[in-house]
Design brief:
1 helix; 123 residues; mainly alpha
């Protein structure tokens, strides 16, 4: 009878080892699978962030172009208005100069024309 007990005992210890090995293998597989899932999740998140970045960039580029275009138009308008103001001031200054010197010109012209006409008559 002692032999039977030893066999049973040895079978039980063998089963315990296989159960422990089985649990260790299962834990190992779960760990490996957890790492795989985490890796795939990180890849998917990175891909999503890249797509979001591309979408934002595609929206930002036209907005930046519009901003630059608007800034250029505003600069041109400012330069054009400055030119117009300068021209107006120059024209006003010319007119003022002409108005101030016009009586003197008339006097000079009328005196010169009288002299010339007198010389013609004498000749």
């Amino acid at each position: 009878m002692a032999k039977r007990r030893m066999r049973r005992t040895s079978q039980i210890s063998t089963n315990r080892q296989s159960t422990a090995d089985s649990l260790a293998d299962t834990a190992k597989d779960m760990s490996v699978n957890a790492v795989k899932v985490a890796t795939e999740t990180a890849k998917a998140a990175l891909g999503g962030m890249q797509e979001l970045g591309r979408a934002m960039a595609s929206m930002a580029a036209p907005a930046a172009r519009r901003s630059v275009k608007t800034a250029n138009e505003m600069t041109r308008a400012a330069i054009d208005s400055t030119r117009d103001l300068t021209r107006s001031a120059t024209d006003t200054a010319r007119e003022a100069t002409r108005s101030a010197t016009s009586p003197a010109r008339r006097t000079t012209r009328s005196g010169a024309s009288r002299r010339k006409s007198g010389k013609r008559r004498a000749a």
